[in-house]
């Protein structure tokens, strides 16, 4: 499961980088193309954020409760 999460997060980041690099200059003068590139960028950046949240939740769920309690004590809460 963890590898599938990381693969999807990497794909989302890679696609957002490709869109950013390919779509910045050529479509600056065309308003419709610019809006399309912006919408795609927003979508893939949000999906990257959500995959990061899924990864964090996956790590939290798999962590034993004793480790969580020890972490709380170690951080002074």
Automatic annotation (TrEMBL):
Compartment list: Membrane
Pfam family for this entry, one: 7tm_2
MF term (GO), any: G protein-coupled receptor activity
Recorded superkingdom: Eukaryota
Residues passing through the membrane, by range: 5-28, 40-61
Membrane topology label: Multi-pass membrane protein
GO CC aspect terms: membrane
InterPro entries hit by this protein: ADGR_G7, GPCR_2_secretin-like
Gene3D superfamilies: Rhodopsin 7-helix transmembrane proteins
Keywords: Membrane, Transmembrane, Transmembrane helix
Primary location: membrane
Protein name according to UniProt: Adhesion G-protein coupled receptor G6-like
Source species: Octopus sinensis (East Asian common octopus)
Organism phylogeny: Eukaryota, Metazoa, Spiralia, Lophotrochozoa, Mollusca
């Amino acid at each position: 499961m963890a590898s599938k999460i990381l693969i999807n997060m990497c794909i989302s980041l890679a696609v957002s980088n490709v869109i950013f690099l390919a779509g910045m200059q050529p479509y600056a003068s065309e308003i419709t193309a610019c809006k399309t590139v912006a919408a795609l960028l927003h979508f893939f950046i949000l999906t990257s954020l959500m995959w990061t949240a899924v990864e964090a939740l996956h790590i939290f769920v798999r962590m034993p409760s004793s480790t969580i309690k020890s972490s709380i004590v170690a951080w002074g809460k």
